[in-house]
Every structure is written in structure tokens, then in C-alpha cells.
Amino acid sequence: MRSTASSCLLGAFRSLKIAPTSTTRPSIIPSAATASRVTAGQQNVRLFSASASMAGNWLEPQLDRKKKMMKGRPRVPTGGSTKGTTVVWGDYGLRMIDHHRRISAQQLKLAEDTIKARLRGQKYRLYKRVCCNVGVFVSGNEIRMGKGKGSFDHWAARVAVNQVVLELRGMIHEQVVRDALRLAGNKLPGQWEFVKKGEPPVVGITKLDGITLEDLKRPRRKVSAETLQPIPPPTEASEGNRTPLDLP
Q1: What is the 3-state secondary structure (H, E, C) of the chain?
Q2: 69, 152, 186, 227: which sits with the fewest CB atoms below 10 Å from its CB?
Q3: Backbone torsion region of residue 198, taken as left when φ is above 0, otherwise alpha when ψ lies between -120 and 50, otherwise beta
Q4: Residue 77 to residue 84: CA distance in whole angstroms
Q5: CA angle 190, 193, 197 (to 5 degrees)
Q6: Neighbours of 112 (CB within 10 A)
Q7: pLDDT of 124 higher than 80
Q8: Beta-carbon neighbour count of residue 118 at 10 Å?
Q9: pLDDT at 65 exceeding the cut of 70
Q10: 103 in Cβ contact with 188 (< 8 Å)
Q11: In the predicted model, what is the mean pLDDT of residues 19-32?
């Protein structure tokens, strides 16, 4: 019995052959074509990142509240810059037209809620062009002068004149968007206007409608004296033809 088993085992070992490359086992190293296909397929795939995503909030920044901030003034671009005066991402926008001011985060949040309530059930997207990154510190009532700046009260944003604050895009009729932005402007301090994408930008308080920046930077043209014409004096009626004002 042992001889039969040993002979069978010896025959099995003799039948085995050692080949330089195995045909049944796949190769671990991929070929050039496979590597190119894998690389082309992973171009549009976001790589894994262990760092947490920073989810920002436009109404409350990630700043230290204990750091005192100056009141400051909004920067009005009067030197030729048109940044923030046109609609960029959306189709319609809400733009300030009267005067620069500081708007609190509570007022901006109320305007956003007003738009969401008016457009409830519609397909749209709202873009915010400002960020409340200015801390407002207030002292209590009936406190003497001095004794520090006060404690933190709320966040605010500096909004310059002719700056777009909110933008909207979606499958909504223009009149409905006008009504929604009108209601939002009523909740905010100041005067606001409805603007559409493609409207001319504004430099300071001058709209570039038919005027270029080169025309604004060009010095004033000198008018020759030959082209000037004197203004004729106004013709006054004689005193005899005038009706007294005290008569009935």
C-alpha cells in the first residue's frame, strides 16, 4: 500500500513543469494601455483628502469675536474699477443705488428669508455677493465715556454704493423675480434697484452706458470762444399788461 502511494506521488511530481511565466496567473504589473485607461478615467475624479472641508457662512465668519474692529467706511471704487457692480453668476440681481452703509447680518438674513418665502416651490439658486465680516461692538446704556470699546453685539457687512448684494438664477418668470427682489429691498435699509445680467457697470455713481473708462479718464475738452453763443435775455411782459395778484 505504501509502495502504491509513493509511486503515485512520484508520478505526480514528475508531471509538474516549471515555466518562466505562468499563463493562468494574471500579471501584477499593468500594461501601458491599461495604465493610460486608468489615468484617463481618474482625471475627473476628486482625490481623497483627510482634511475636513471648511463650510463657510456668509452671515457669521470664522473670526475671533474678542478681536476689536474699527467701524471703517466702505470702499467706493471711483478710480476706474467696476468690481461688484454687475451681475456675474445669476440672471437678476439687487443693487444699492443711494449711499454706502453698514448692513447687519440680521437684516441680510431677513431679506434672504423674504425671497425664499416668495419663491417657495420654484426652482432657483440664490447667490450672496457680500460677507458679514465686520464685528460691531456696543456698550450698554447709561455707561460713562471710556472704559473700553464694549462687548460684541452682531456681525455686519460694509456695502458700497452701486454694489450687487444678491443674485438669482432659475426657471422663474422675470416679473416674479422682480417682485421677490422688491420685497427683499424693502427689508434692507436704503434704496435698491433691479438689475439684469448684461447691464452696464458703474464707476462710482456713473453708469458706463455708452461711455467707456477711457472717456472718463480723458481730460475735459477745451471749447473755443468762436463756438460759444450768447444767451438772449428773457423777454419780460410790460407792467401795464400784467394782472395784479390781489384781484379776485
Answers
A1: CHHHHHHHHHHHHHHCCCCCCCCCCCCCCCCHHHHHHHHHHCCCCCCCCCCCCCCCCCCCCCCCCCCCCCCCCCCCCCCCCCCCCCCCCCCEEEEECCCCEEEEHHHHHHHHHHHHHHCCCCCEEEEECCCCCEEEEECCCCCCCCCCCCEEEEEEEEECCCCEEEEEEECCCHHHHHHHHHHHHHHCCCCEEEEECCCCCEECCEECCCCCHHHHHCCCCCCCHHHCCCCCCCCCCCCCCCCCCCCC
A2: 227
A3: left
A4: 10
A5: 140
A6: 17
A7: yes
A8: 16
A9: yes
A10: yes
A11: 54
**pLDDT score at 158:** 93
- Contact, 93 vs 168, CB < 8 A? yes
First and final CA of the chain: distance in angstroms? 151
Dist. CA 118–CA 180, nearest whole Å: 6
Enter the C-alpha cell of residue 218: 480723458
Q: Which residue has 470762444 as its cell numbers?
A: 225
**pLDDT computed for residue 171 by the predictor:** 92
pLDDT at 243: 63
